[in-house]
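Whether sequence alone determines local backbone shape is best considered at the level of individual chains. The sequence in question and its structure tokens are set out directly beneath this paragraph.

===
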Amino acid sequence: MYQDKTLVCRDCGAEFMFTAGEQEFFAEKGYHDPVRCRECRNSKKNARREKVSYHAVCAECGKETEVPFIPKNDKPIYCSECYARMRNR
């Protein structure tokens, strides 16, 4: 029923094969045909996963640390060691 077909990547313009098996899988899941090659899909996925970190100073020990959120001046920031100690109290 399905036949391999060649598609063109939206991002890099390279041709890639959309196999019959992949088409069947996509149809079963209700997905649209892919618009990016595997390399560009992986690059886009990895870019979303990159974590942003912000520099801060621990309110307990004064050590520089990084946190995954924008530090606010109205709340103390703790390094991982001090935070772990405070949780265990």
Remarks:
- The mean pLDDT is 93.
